[in-house]
């Protein structure tokens, strides 16, 4: 059995991660499937960004990331498609959705069900992805909404290949 067979049938929550490069003000965001809580006390959250991705490039200079939980209804799936199937190398994703600036200028998606803004404590090489360990500085939203998962995503062709 290979690794693909091991994870077959898993249904991970999907997130949109956004950031802003403090030097250039460049905003970036992408759909992320590799993320998890790593500690209870103190609370820590890990998000993994593909090295091929524009969001990763912006995050290398950033102090904070925002992690957005989307719901399963159609408008949320469209937001997931915007951040998962389009690349910021070609399209200004933030011109196509409603957002507001959060701590340290990080873009917060108005339509997201909830979000966590976290200060980046560590960047960890994890192969073709880099893990960003976050210490929450702001958490808000509706915790009652069922999150968008890998299985409930629309069929997407990624803006950048992940690996």
Name of the CATH first level: Mainly Beta
Strand sequence of the main sheet, in spatial order? 2-1-5-8-9-4-3
Q: How many beta-strand elements?
A: 9
Query: What is the CATH architecture annotation?
Result: Roll
Q: What composes the largest sheet?
A: 7 strands, antiparallel
Q: Which runs of at least 5 residues are low in confidence (pLDDT < 50)?
A: none
Structural class, by secondary structure, is: mainly beta
Beta-strand fraction estimate: 35-45%
Describe the structure.
Keywords: Oxidoreductase. This protein has 163 residues and is mainly beta. It has one domain: Roll (Pnp Oxidase, Chain A), CATH 2.30.110.10. Helices cover 14% and strands 39% of the residues. It has three helices and nine strands; from the N terminus they run αββββαβαββββ. A hairpin with a 6-residue loop joins strand 1 (15-20) and strand 2.
Describe the secondary structure blueprint for this structure.
Elements: H1 3-7, E1 15-20, E2 27-32, E3 35-40, E4 43-50, H2 54-59, E5 64-69, H3 74-85, E6 99-101, E7 107-109, E8 114-125, E9 129-141
Antiparallel strand pairs: 1-2, 1-5, 3-4, 4-9, 5-8, 6-7, 8-9
